[in-house]
Design goal:
Blueprint lengths: L3 H8 L15 H29 L15 E2 L4 E5 L2 E2 L2 E2 L3 E7 L1 H9 L3 E2 L4 E3 L5 E4 L1 H11 L4 E5 L5 E3 L6 E2 L1 E3 H10 L3 E2 L5 E2 L2 H4 L3 H18 L4 E5 L5 H7 L7 E4 L27 E2 L2 H4 L14
Parallel strand pairs: 1-6, 5-8, 9-15, 12-16
Antiparallel strand pairs: 2-5, 3-4, 7-8, 10-11, 10-17, 13-14, 15-16
Helix pairs in contact: 1-2, 4-7, 5-7
């Protein structure tokens, strides 16, 4: 879960970013991040625990006297600072380095939920600001997950300029072509760079391209599919269980329709031209208000 919006609101004009809107985290900003991440974590834990108790959760056969389902958070991953890149010292901003895979899997197999925040622990024990979207991609790849799903108000849809249709399902090679066109590159150290023209686009467009970048990186590292959806009621179910009528964007190694043969019309193949890459449609996040409390913010990922 991320808290970028909350940190920006408190930091005001003190927020400093460089290429691709990556935050430069000084000591004061790190303190704000730790406070906001703690608040967001508590809110998510509270709501998830309530949901688990209402609808069942946890393995009662293994822990018969425990509540049905728990939400656990902690230092499940370590991080590493970016350091100085192109003359910019990112200070306490870094990337995920290692995940305690066995511990996470043990918790999940017990029917519980692992909750991670963007606050990581650096090599010498210092706090690190780790982008939550890059963390999600890293964790999904480390766990060899079937899917990584981004839920964010920054989600948008791609539109084919020729047909006017939205492009919801496409493959890794198409995503790589799109990212190359916009000069978006997720490097081996999970640092993202974008071209000058792309960086001048509005924040939501750049945020969507970065999500596509990290989602694609996750697939390149072994994850089977990636989804980007908006936090609206029913969006997750509709996205996962319908091939043609999903609510967001799906990237996969193969054709997504192949797992829904009864819903496959055969007309969703993406064109190899670059025309579709020129326009974003800000549909989901603008038309639907998030259903979660405003206290959590608008950057739940």
């Amino acid at each position: 879960v991320g808290c970028r919006q909350q940190v920006d609101d408190r930091n005001g004009e003190g927020t400093k970013r460089s290429n691709a809107h990556i935050r430069v985290t000084d000591s004061d900003t790190l303190r704000i991040l730790e406070e906001e991440a703690g608040f967001v974590r508590f809110e998510i834990e509270r709501q998830l625990n309530r949901c688990l108790r209402l609808h069942g959760g946890g393995d009662v056969s293994k822990t018969p006297n425990a509540p049905n389902g728990n939400v656990l958070s902690g230092n499940f991953f370590s991080s590493k600072p970016f350091g100085v890149i192109d003359g910019v010292d990112y200070q306490h901003t870094g990337r995920p380095k290692h995940l305690n895979v066995k511990r996470v899997l043990d918790i999940v197999e017990n029917g519980d939920i692992v909750l991670l925040t963007p606050v990581g622990i650096g090599p010498t024990g210092e706090g690190m600001n780790v982008n939550s979207e890059s963390l999600a991609a890293f964790v999904a790849a480390s766990l060899c997950a079937n899917k990584v799903i981004y839920c964010s108000n920054d989600s948008m849809l791609l539109k084919d300029n020729d047909s006017g249709k939205t492009v919801q399902n496409f493959r890794v090679k198409d995503s790589l072509a799109l990212l190359k066109h916009f000069e978006v590159d997720v490097h081996g150290n999970y640092f993202v760079t974008v071209g000058k023209e792309t960086e001048e686009k509005n924040f939501r467009e750049v945020a969507m391209l970065m999500k596509l970048g990290w989602a694609t990186r996750a697939l390149q590292d072994g994850v089977e599919r990636a989804h980007i959806i908006a936090p609206t009621n029913g969006a997750l179910i509709e996205e996962l269980f319908t091939a043609k009528d999903g609510t967001g964007t799906c990237i996969s190694h193969d054709t997504y329709e192949s797992v829904h043969p009864e819903d496959d019309s055969g007309d969703n193949e993406m064109s190899n031209t670059v025309d579709y890459r020129e326009e974003f449609v800000a549909a989901l996040a603008e038309e639907h208000e998030p259903k979660w409390p405003k206290a959590i913010g608008v950057d739940l990922q």
